[in-house]
Amino acid sequence: MTTIRQRRVGKGTEAAEDQPSEETNVKPDGKILPDPPGGKLWSILSVTVGGIVAISLGLLTSVYVATLHENDLWFSNIKEVEREISFRTECGLYYSYYKQMIEAASIQQGLHGLVYDNKTESVRTINILERMNVYQEVFLSILYRILPIQQYLEPVYFYIYTLFGLQAVYVIALYVTSWLLSGTWLSGLLAACWYITNRVDTTRVEFTIPLRENWALPFFAVQIAAITYLLRAHLQPAQERLTLLAVFIATFLFSLTWQFNQFMMLIQALALFILDCLDMLPTAKVTWLYIIQISGLLLVCVLQFFNSMILGSLLISFNVSVLIAKTIQTNLKKGGLLNRLGKLILHVLLVLCLTLLINKFIKKILNLESDEHIFKFLKAKFGFGATRDFDANLYLCEEAFGLLPLNTFSRLSSTLLFYVYGFVLVLLTVAAVIVAFRNLSGSNQVHLKDRMEEYTVTLKPEAAYSLVHTVLFGCLALSTMRMKYLWTSHMCVFASFGLCSAEVWKLLLKCLHLYTSQRTQVIKYSIPIITLLYISFKFWPGIMDELSELREFYDPDTVELMNWIKSNTPNTAVFAGSMQLLAGVKLCTGRTLTNHPHYEDKDLRERTKQIYQIYARRAPGEVHGILRSFGADYVILEDSICYERRHSRGCRLRDLLDVANGHIMDGLGENEPDLKPSLYPRFCEEIKKNLPSYTMHFTRVFQNKTFHVYKLAKHK
């Protein structure tokens, strides 16, 4: 337990929170005292009201994002091809497997088509269930086929409503986590309101529906809620076992639905490791959480046909290393301050070395190189040498993988979220440092004294975990904008918990010598209510305006392209082009692709780099040979890539290809001294001139303002 406890001078207990305080209901021997009849009735009433509010807010959030999606696209009125085009880039690829399962003659045939897929990557047969996290699409398609809803609900609506429904689970999980941390459902209400009013920075589900994170993050939130409950003191054995089961199920579902699960759980494991080293969490529970992470990931590995990228993950290597190190260093938490610090340093070094050795050994045995692009990206991002690696630069030049923009903080501050978050973070960080020093020094108490009172600074295990969790995921979000959604949602939980927590206000008031029990109770309820009123009055009109704003999907060039492909090319035709566009080609037309946006495969990354030579300075014969080697019958060129202006010089796709090929870049500016001019003009520009050297290999068969489609000659 961690709280700020004043030494009593006289009799009396502090007022309970919505749920009776643990300390007032626990005997010195650890047994739970029964609640008085009135207190039990109040507790039941509070839980009932809080539960109804949680469910209501979750459902309202689902309706809210569904309405925004409908209003933005007029989804109910547009054609099927337009609906499918609205699933941009990798979203379209994932949804295509749901569509494929729905349209299959039987469930067995649909599964066979996924396990032996030869349309996602030409001239290759791949196992989609092994390569990608699409079990959710498989499950949903089977559910749609067996339920008697086909005549009432179109498959696309069943899919998107499921995702919007998961937003209800997400909000309820955030609500419950905040409630568990603070002891009052008012905290959960504030967390949910902050999540909704900061929607731009907390979710993007309404415009990237099939994205893996929109499936996974609700389960991650449920897992965090279960861990928060697990770390509470005085749980009964049955409660603890059920909570561990809930953690396992949530961990498994999170891991099954997102390919980046291992990296998120590695950060979570680091949080557990830090707190365990500082003796701020129960060691037995931490060990169980390590085991649950490993077992959940291994179960996913089995379902994904022993995906080698999972077996070679740093998470498994790290958790195994920690468990081995714990076995070797049994007296880690004994001794004085210097003794403990020395042991901790050795422990950290041992875990680090074991992790690297185990991971290197596994990757060597499995010949694993699928995740090397991630480490190249991280190395270049954090300044460990410049790189000309095409894959790493492709990530580095995307805004989503850049630093978190500063305007994010101004938006979060407009709802008071960031101000409150910073206030709570500073207070709890100070408390955590004091508690950590006390634990490492081996003393029983660290006292803060004045002439009138003396008290001990403490921190509950669940609050300590929430603190380190938010700090680590905050660092991730600051370094990589795409990962901000993991931080901002928990920011809502952490800030609301601090604002509604008696412990936090007690700490502040005692530091200011203003503490009384009555004052603490007044502040912990009045300030959250004032904050809720401020948010309601300021943002309710904006939300209503947003819900009344009607727009419509409009992309006639892409619609024309997809309709032309379906009408004028054989079903067996193979298309080459950009990863983003080809995902839509597969979804809308069912044609075979040369490459696609799911980038977690070394051969596919090399294939994509080769296909993208259509935007480089290469000879027409070379480009034709490359495309035909992957079985391409048609190639789609996009003016938005060939004449790109969205990125600055050095980050345009054509610049990345030029540098990777050793050629100088277009336009004014510096070039590295060893880069040389190409002997050939840019392919995507020169092919439009219909010169004989190009027309002998390529025949233009379609064009509009955005796209140019060429059919490849089949030379013997």
UniProtKB/TrEMBL annotation:
Segments passing through the bilayer: 41-66, 179-197, 217-235, 242-260, 266-284, 296-324, 344-362, 416-437, 457-478, 485-505, 525-543
Pfam families, A to Z: Dpy19
Keyword Signal: no
One GO MF term attached to the UniProt entry: mannosyltransferase activity
InterPro entries to which the protein is assigned, alphabetical: Dpy-19/Dpy-19-like (IPR018732), Dpy19L3 (IPR047465)
Membrane topology of this protein: Multi-pass membrane protein
GO cellular component, one term: nuclear inner membrane
Similarity-based family: Belongs to the dpy-19 family.
Protein name as it appears in the record: D19L3 mannosyltransferase
Taxonomic placement: Eukaryota, Metazoa, Chordata, Craniata, Vertebrata
Gene transcribed to yield this protein: Dpy19l3
